[in-house]
Amino acid sequence: MSLRRSAVLARWLGPWAKPTAVPSGVTRRTVVIPAETATDRAIDGLFYLPANGRPSGAYLVAPGLHYLGPADPRLDRLCRVFAASGLAVFCPFLPDHRVLRVTPRSPGDLERAFDTLLRQPEVPTGTRPAVFSISFGSLPSLRLAAGERCRDRVRELVLFGGYADFIETIRYSLTGAIDGTVRGKPDPLNKPVVFINTVQAMPGAPADPAPLLDAWLRFCTDTWGRPEMKTGGWKYVAERLCAELPPEMRPLFRIGTGLDDGAQAVGEAALASIDTTFCDPSRGGLDGIRCPVHIVHGADDDVIPPNQLVKLAAALPRHAPVSTYLTGLYGHADNAGLPGPLALARELRTMVRMVRMLASAPG
Are 130 and 102 in contact (CB under 8 A)? Predict the structure, then answer.
């Protein structure tokens, strides 16, 4: 079965595949993840099945910070590809991730999604799903794999574009600095995410930051996924949204979008004054992880620095088998294009390893 899975995954995830093409025959339905306590939120998730409706394994997919969640066409495509290879796939709409927030609530939401996946009638009894996370989805995924509720039922953990050091990751998104040296050009559209998560500690922040938070979120919804925005188009969106805010909120909004300088100073000062312990995977206790962990990172990732691959591997307990894959074929969320012939040969060898791993992780 893993050979068939490998063939399907290689066909659809290789650099030769058209990024917008999707396999046919996959079914998808919305499934409700019920609340378990008075403080829980009932949330939805998208459940995918292969054409014959008889999965031979399962993936729980943890989305990163994105307003569309699993409705993002790129993530929907990935889930369909996994399902076409013969797997049941479940991807929840994590509420805090959809408003670009890193919070302590998301791990619990993901744990409930894990149990909801196993309750689906098409999933065979005794299935131990693999967990596949994207970007900031690595935090709740690591918590799930380490926690008492799910750790003995997770077969393997795959972290794509994850992180180990929250402050260092935020600094990279603001400056492009890795280990104190500027080594990359960060995505210009991500500054608002930093401000959304730290505005409460920023000097001059309004008592009710809701209009600011809404404007920064709208900036992201209006610019993400549009290549022309990264080359300057974002400025027109930012100016339009800024004009709609009360005058006293505009200075902070301008800094938080990059219209005015100062994002690094304001962002780092805010981070220094709030407790971000829960945001760092290694500070939450990873010793509970028992399953194999596979860490994949794009060499040119402009959101989370590539050095997080090594740091994340070092943070994992020694008793958990760890494998790493640094690839130039994929960016943070997209196919990154083809390198030269020699580099392509090396990348294809890495891709073969990745495909075999993705095919075997769910059992």
Answer: no
